[in-house]
Amino acid sequence: MKHPISIPLRIQLLVLSPLLLALPSRAASTGQAFYGDPPDELHPWAVHDRNRLQPPRVEPGTPSTQRSPGRPPSDATVLFDGTERSLANWISEKPEGGPIKWALKDGALEVVPKTGYIRTRAEFGDAQVHVEWASPTVIKGESQGRGNSGIFLHGLVEVQVLDNNDNPTYADGFAASVYGVQPAMANALRPTGEFQSIDIVFRRPIYVGDRLVDPGYVTVFCNGVLVQDHTPLEGPTGHIKRTHSRPFPEKGPLRLQDHGDLVRFRNIWIRELPPRPQAGATDFAYTAIETTAKRAEIAASIRSDGARLAAGSNARMLRLAESLVYAPDAATRAEVESLAKAYAHSIASLSGGALEAKKDEVRTVLKALQFLAKAGALAPDFAPKVTLEKVSLAAGWDEVKK
User: Fold this and answer.
1) Which residue in 360, 347, 343 sits closest to 391, CA to CA?
2) Is the CB of residue 287 less than 8 Å from the CB of residue 6?
3) Which residues pair with 91 in a beta bridge?
4) Handedness of CA 167, 171, 176, 179 (dihedral sign)
5) Do 127 and 273 touch, CB atoms closer than 8 A?
6) Of 285, 273, 268, which Cα lies nearest the Cα of 195?
7) To 5 degrees, how large is the angle CA 250–CA 253–CA 258?
């Protein structure tokens, strides 16, 4: 396998900038501002950042039994659910194409030998894939001639389907192997004729031009047992010949193999996954370039919020100050400094009960200014910060460090 190659800064910016700008805007603020460690050169978010997107709600599915398939997660695209209607999601790969000729029996899709592979009409990118399959109940053949089929991710990478109960074969052609590449780590098959549950996480190789920037990976669970652990891809799989690295299309179909055996399939669904940073940036594992772009995006969103707040208000000052944690902006900084100076001056003129009434407010503003100094957005000796620190110390609001 080729190793990732360093890409010039200019090329990375051209590829990534439009994708980063297309990311969804942040969710409503939840939690405290100026709280965890600030963003840095590889982390666009603060620790416990309230501006980070909330996870979308997905209703979990239910487990299958031998008698009946489970319910897919709420955001899954159902490809086959045992109904005749769902057959329309598939087409034949025979030269004449058209509807599939596999048999619908008792809620399962059974291979009809010599009718050819089938594939989904739709194409998908990186995805979580769920397939349940069962080998014929009548045991015939041996090695690759018993209960053979395959699940082809992106139409190119085969996860092997095979009856390997008391049926040895070459290791990289075993059930749940990445065919011709990587054997399964364990034989987790149920008895012959029972439905096997296969869950796959597929990530395609990513290239910029002809340069590999991130290998593809396949993770597979067979009946809940991890059997492929982030297995790297060298390219499309095949029979006899070794695979070689090459670019994959962004999307591809799910294919099922006609190998001549009466294998049955049911409960097939897919969930497309967010792109990796190398294909458009997600919410983790950013490069320095991606971090800078993402921080600018977050800052712009926060400034937009702050601009809607009342001019001269503490709320406006704090919200605009929060944006400076992520990215500098001369006009925003000037407004924050002006508001902070006016605020510190007003507090310094108070005493007694009037000052005590402002305790929580002062501590909130001081915490923000101290955080900005820690993040490098304001100078450590910023005068309003120093003033409020003196007020807080004189009023006995600071805890004494021992």
Assistant:
1) 347
2) no
3) 119
4) negative
5) yes
6) 268
7) 145
Confidence check: pLDDT of 127 > 70: yes
Contact between 36 and 18 under an 8 Å Cβ cutoff? The reply is no
Who contacts 32 (Cβ-Cβ below 8 Å, separation ≥6)?
48, 50
**Length of the chain measured in residues:** 402
> What is the model's pLDDT at position 269?
98
The DSSP-derived string for 283-304 is: SS---HHHHHHHHHHHHHHHHH
What's the alpha-carbon Rg for the chain, to the nearest Å? 29
> Mean pLDDT over residues 31-58, rounded?
92
The string over 99-111, giving b where at least 16 C-beta atoms fall within 10 Å of a residue's C-beta and e elsewhere, is ebebeeeeebbbb
CA distance 195 to 264: 8
3-class DSSP assignment, residue 217: strand
13 pLDDT more than 50: no
Cα 37 from chain centre:
23
- What was the pLDDT predicted at 24? 41
Domain definitions of the chain by residue range: 1-53+283-402, 55-276
The yes-or-no verdict on residue 214 having pLDDT over 90 is: no
Q: What angle, rounded to 10 degrees, do the helices at 330-348 and 383-394 form?
A: 30
Cα distance between residue 202 and residue 219, in whole Å? 7
Element (H, E) at 340: helix 330-348
Distance CA 174, CA 182 (A): 9
Residue 215 has pLDDT above 50, yes or no: yes
Least confident of 130-144, 267-281, 364-378: 267-281
Could you give the CA distance from residue 136 to residue 167 in angstroms, rounded to a whole number? 14
Summarize pLDDT for 321-375 with one digit per residue, the tens: 999 999 999 999 999 999 999 999 999 999 999 999 999 999 999 999 999 999 8
CATH number of 55-276: 2.60.120.560
Quote the pTM value. 0.82
Neighbours of 212 (CB within 10 A): 19
**Spatial contact of 159 and 268, defined as CB atoms under 8 Å apart:** no
- Tell me the residue type at 371: F
Tell me, what's the pLDDT at 53? 86
